[in-house]
Structure formats: structure tokens, C-alpha cells
Amino acid sequence: MGIRGTTNSDEMQMVCVVCGNPAGLMCQRCGEPYCQDACQRLDWQRHKYFCIIMPPLVAYRPIQQPSKPISTKTVEMDASKLSLGETPPKTQVMIESTTSTPTTTVEPTAVVSKKEELKLSDNWREHLLPKGEEFFECRVTFMEKEGPIWVVHVANVESMERLTDNMKRCMLSQKLIRSQNVKENTLVAINVHSKIHRGQVLTVRAQKEEADIRLIDYGAVVVTPFRDIYDVIPKMAEYKAFAFRAKLPTNTGVQVNKNLTLRLLGTRNHDGVYHVHLKPKMTIPLSLPMEMLQLNPEVKVLRVFGQNPTANESQLALLQINVMEHINNDLNASLAGKPGQPFTGPFPEEKCTIFVSARTSDGFRRAFLLDRIVGPPPTFLVYEMDEGRISVTSELTRIPSELLGLPIRVLAAQLKDSIPKELESCGTDLTVKFKLDNPPPKEKLRAANAALLARGEQICMARLSTFLGQISDLGHKIWRDPIEKDASVIITHVVSYKEVYISSPNSKQYAGLFKRLESKCVAFGDSSDVSIGCIVLVASKMTGHFRGEVLSVADGKYNVQNVDTGAHHQLDLSALRKSCRFLDNLPVSLLRVQLKTVCNIPDAAVPPNNAAINLLHTLSAQEEILKLEREDSSTSIVDLLSSSGDQRSLVSRMLPLMFTPAPEKAKEAPPKAAPTPATLDPFLLEPPKDLPPLPPSPPNSPTPVRSVDNKQLTDSAQKKPFERYFFNALPKHLVPLGYKVNIILLNAGGMPETGYITACFLQNVKVAEEYQTFLNLVANQGACDHNAVPGYVPNVGELCLALFSEDKSWYRGVCQEVKDNVAKILFCDFGNWEYVDVENLKPISQDLLNGIYATKCYIDGFDKSKNFAALESFLIHKSKFQCDVKDGPEPDSRLITIPNLQDILNKPTA
Prior knowledge:
By secondary structure, the protein is α+β, with helices and mostly antiparallel strands. The chain has 16 helices and 45 strands. The protein has five domains: 1-111, no CATH class; 123-278, Roll (SH3 type barrels); 283-324 and 407-480, no CATH class; 488-657, SH3 type barrels (Roll), CATH 2.30.30; 727-903, SH3 type barrels, CATH 2.30.30.140. Helix content is 14%, strand content 29%. The strands form nine sheets. Strands 6-11-7-8-9-10 form a six-stranded antiparallel sheet. Strands 15-16-22-25-24-23 form a six-stranded antiparallel beta barrel. Strands 4-5-12-14-13 form a five-stranded mixed β-barrel. A hairpin with a 4-residue loop joins β19 (379-384) and β20 (389-393). It starts with 24 loop residues before the first strand and ends in a 5-residue tail after the last helix.
């Protein structure tokens, strides 16, 4: 407060507290003198702590002199009516008056009565301790130099952080008042690093205007200036202190923010310290279970790793011991109904061993954590130590202590000879007989020589070792999963009519993972960093995201083979990124095979553009699931059976088409267009305004990305050279993951039967306008005559320009089927489809390869038995709505939760 000057006359002369000029104005509430309102505004940063809400200035009037030389009038604040999050009443400060005798004025201060202090709860002086006498998990919040530590029960961490956030909001809304009378052994609120904490005043140094204050919820002692100390509101005192002081026999291995498992040993001593017992650390034994295998030598072959002969890789197999088959059942029984403890710590870049329990499609499994992708949602790559396989999961928790001490069930066997016939198929029962020159040590025996026996006869020698999941530890570059007989597969790449690449259907999810790994895998700094044979992540607008192996380099272009599809691409250095553990250890199930019977037909007898190879391209683009049929795992000559009930042979379907050129398209009247839902005219909808930017979400992208096909039409004398572009190569701007996302409906037709709609998300008005301009460009190019190609027929999966029958306008489409001079076209920017005459189709140009905003959105809670026609009607009339968005069940799809879904379904349809 300002200094009031006095004179010997009866009339008191007041001066401005800012500039010292004679003051003719004063604060209406507290009487602070000012010469003008500008000085009041300059002084407000200081003055606002005494007068909440700047009062108007009034004409100065002499303050009535009290009966005593110095008197105070205070209005006590009723603290009992305040609670955390409530607005405090306006406080009045002391008004000082003076007599004609000069006196030293004292700055007015906010006074808290003793009555208020007594009303504060004493709960904050107690500690929030765990219940019972069992071990509990806690987080270390502070370590004293002398030895004691401060810990918080992990069950209370969330409540503690919520209290801290609430106190921060109270300060921002000016519900906390600066303390004017800091006393020892009292509860205050202090501002430390822009956070508000509860503190107990230990020592006050009035001359330095500072105090030593212990953070009662963390344990640390901080020196705090008076300006950062606030009076608490009563609700803050009602919570017990979250942190308590504990003493261990030794602090070896203890760190701040580290979790410990402790148990209390009685009550606290006179220093307020609780003696605790640290739970003995249990770890999974990584040594070979020698004694167990000597008593029970039976093992089972889990898998034999595919070998790359050019990489000089050794023959490898994974063997599972037959004992301890109860582990998985015991693990799931122990974790049933218990909430998982999410993995939140920083993932170390250096090589380390992290034991976790991971939820897989078969339930919880003991596993090693190999790598992770930061969410949302978080995605983890784990090696199931008792099953010998790699899994991708989003849920981890701790392994129960009673199962930690059991050995690993799966061992690696590095074969010294060629793979015997008994090891060619999984499930074979073998016997292990160790070949030890010296007695084995009791601990840390991680590898040993052994003979593998089948039916009592030795079949080969092997080096058995403990395997922790990283395939590079065994001398292999990539984790290769074999494709067994009768396995389900998809065709990923067509080499010729006689030779294709096949892979497991599980690889279809990889494209989404690769896209999310772009932020994790750093770019190459120089071409010298790229070595021939190395594994890279490819991130290109034209080819999408995939995992590749660098085969060669020439003229600045890198020849990269897609590890998961077999396709080859010529790429610039800018499209390559360094690999990571996630990329290296994600399984590859690619296999190059020849189709039986077909592979024996000479090339000269087969027309180049035959109908059989078109059939292969169609099956590959549609990712149709087939069944592998071959005699044994050693042969690459196979047949592929349809997954439908008749299981028709692919070879038998191809043979009649082998010598038949691709049929010319006769100009026949197209069949009547299939009934298609009424489409919404693109972006006549009002674009979303002031939407938040896209979060750093990792959406899925389509599986195998197909490169540009430069094949020209050969069925017309008026052929024109052009390039074919495929839908899978386009970038996808999916609806972002998150809560309360504003999306625009594009198409809801057929939703009561399919369970999904097509929608999009546009960041702002500018993006919407640019996209509308692009769609106008598409329509204009489609209407032009110069880009027509006589006899043009798109391949399945190819992008094209298509004329929509209802508005006679051109849009981008993707060909899904071609039959009898008519193509089934999906209008990829809106989600609806119809049959279009091939005369109304044109090749798409490179400048129209912008990303796709239309996203297939499945409805959470969809049920065909319910009245989802009411939801369809609601969405069509709503056009723009808000919902929660998660990853969908298919690549490039989303799962949306619509608010008040049940209320909408209960409404009768119009």
C-alpha cells in the first residue's frame, strides 16, 4: 500500500501512491489515493491482491478519524463456507486512519481470524497409508540426504494429481489469496514451477520475506518467497497428506519416480518415519533349465525359421519344453478381474530385458517387451516367451510374483547340420540330450551343446540357448515365420502367370503400423548411411509406407524390395528411414511360390495379356483369402484353394484362361444401375469451423501398396500411352482419433445392413475450400474430351475418373469389378458406388492423386436387430455431428461412438 503524507494542518494532504502527485481520487473500496485512473491501472498488478475486481475511482474525501490514534476495521472471511472450487467472497482490508500527529502508516494486510484457523481440518497432518499388512506398490517422490525417503501409494497418485490440478484452477480463477501472515506449522498453498502444492510451514524468515515449506504430498522442502504463498481454502485441509516418510535398510537401487513394493513394519517412530520392508525382487531365470531337461528331456518343435541362403544365416528352430503347461492358465486366473497396470515409463533405447504380461488373442501371456509405438492407442511388440511367437498388443501388465521365478519354456536351437526331415514340420516331439565336457554351473548357463533325438535315434546336433525375442541375437536379419501346409494366405504380388508371392492375412495390418512408425524411425542423414542389404522403412506419397530391404543403388536411385509383399521399387534417399526394433522383429511370412501345372507351360505358348494373369491381379488387389495346398514345406510348387465352401483350385480356374487373350469389351447396353443411396453433393455441406488441428494420431493405411503400372492398352489400334495409378498408393487423411471429434457425413446409405457410414474430417475452412477446389478440378478434367482413351478398361483396384449417373458429373473412383463392359465403381471421395459403362470411365492423371478424406466409420454398438434406420435418417438430416473416434476393425477404418445412440434408435423412423 502507498504511504500517506500528513501536514500539521487539520486538512490532510494526500499524494498518489504511483507518481507522488497530489491525489484527488481514491479507491472506492479501500481508500487507496490516486491522481488519475491511469495511475490506478498501472498499480493494479499490485493492488489487485487487496481489491478483487478493480473498483471505480471516486472523489477523495477525508477519512473519518477514529477515537484512537490507530484503529482497524476488518471484515472476517467466513472460511467455513468455502470449499475447493468455490468462489470466495470479496475481502475487505484494513483501512488506516491518522490523527493530526504524524504517525508511521502500515500497509494494510488481509487478516485471517483465529476463529477461521480453528475451522481448518487437521486431516492434512495425518498420512494416507495403505490398508492391511500386505505388500503394496508405491512411487518414490523424494529422497532425503540422510536416508529416509518419501513415497505415495500408487493407488493414490491419480487423486493427488487431481487435487494439484484443482488447486491450480483455484489460483487461476483468483480463489486463492496471498497469505499476509505466514506462521510456522500451518498449512499453506505455494506456487512451485507453475504448480500449486499444499505445504507445511517449517521456518519463517521475515526479514528475507521467505519461508522453508515442506510439500506435504511429496516430501521435499523448498525455500519459498512470501509472494508465492497463499492461504488455503478449507477443502484443501480435509485431505490427508498423500506422501509419508519411510526408512529402508539400504537405498541401493532406489530412485525418485521409481516404483517400489513395500510393506509397513509397525507404526512410525518419534521422527515421523515408518520402517518398511522391500519385497525381494523376483526375476525370470534366464539360464537354461538344465536340471529340468535332464529329468524331463522331451521337447516339441514350435517353428523352424526360414533361411535366407544369400545372407549366410544359420538353421534355427524354437523348441518348447513339455513341462509347466499350467503357466498360461495360472497367469490368466491370477489376472482375471484385475485392472492392468499400464506401461508408462520411458522405453530405453539401449538393449534391455523388460518382463511383462501381455494380453494376446489367446489371453495373457508372459512376454519380453521388444518395442512400442506411442499412442493413442499405445501399441507394443512383445515376444511370448512360453509360446515362441511375436505379438502386437495394446495392453500390458505386471507378471504376478508367483509366476516370475519359473523358467522360460521356449529355447532356441541353432542346428549344426542341415534341417532333418523330423524338423520340417511343427509339432514334432523330440528328446534333448546334453553334450557337456564339464559339469554345468548352477547359474548363468545360457547356452550348451546338445543332441536332438527322434524315437531314440540322434537326428542332429544343436546349440541350445536362451532366446529373448530379438532375432538379430541369433544371427538373422528378419524374423521369418514359415507358412505351413493348409495355412490361409493372400496373394501380395504377381510376378508372372506362373509365379506369385503369398503371405499370411495377418500382414494386412502392417501398413497401419508402418505409418505410425514414421515418427519413430529417423531419416538417413547421408547416402553413405544406407548399406546394401539393410532393412529400412519407406515413407513415400506415391508408394505409401512399407518395410523394405535395400538391394542395390544406381544413379541416386535405390532398388528396394518390399519385405512383406515382394514388389520392387526405385526410390530416392528422401523416402528411406532407418529401422528400429519394432520394424526388425515384426514377423515376415512372405513366400515366393510357383503354381503347379501352370509353371510347366512354356512362355511362348501363353499370350502376354491373357485372362489368367488378370485373374491373379484381381485376387491380389481384392486380398482374397486362399488356402495353401502343397505336399511338404520343402517344395515351392503349390496350389491355392478358394476359401469358400467348394474350395475350387486356382490352377483349375486359370487353365481355361491361359491361352485366351483378355476379352475385348463389346459395346453392349449396360445393365440397370444397382440401387445406390442418394449422395450428398460434395461440400455443399457447411465446412467445420474452428476445429482443433489433427492430433498426432497414427491411423492405419492400406495393405500392400501397389506401384505404378506402365502397361499400355493393346486391344485397340488407337491406343494411347498412359500410366495406371492404384487406390492403395494414395495417402489417406482419416478421421482423427479422439473424443468429441466433429465429422461430416458423406454417405449413410445401406448403414442399417452394413453397420458403417462414410464421413470425413476437415481441419478448418481453408482445407475445406482447397478440397472443394480440387473436386471442381476433377469434374472439369472429367468433362474434357482430350483425355479420353478409346477402349480404356481399368484394372481392379485402379483409380479412374467416372461419370455419376444422377448429376452427370465426374468424380474419382476405384474399380472394384469389371464384367460385360460394365465396371463397379466406388466413388472414393464419398463412399457410394454404382455400375458404370466403361465408355464413361477415363484414366486419372497424376495431378489428381491427392489424398482421400473419406473414411469408413463403423458404428459402435451396431446390431441388425435394432432400428438403425432411425439412425440413418438422423445422420442424413444432421450432416455434421460430434462423436468419439477409435481405430476401426479394418485397415483405414474407424469405430465411432455416437452420443445418445439409444435415444435415436428408440425414435420411430419417418
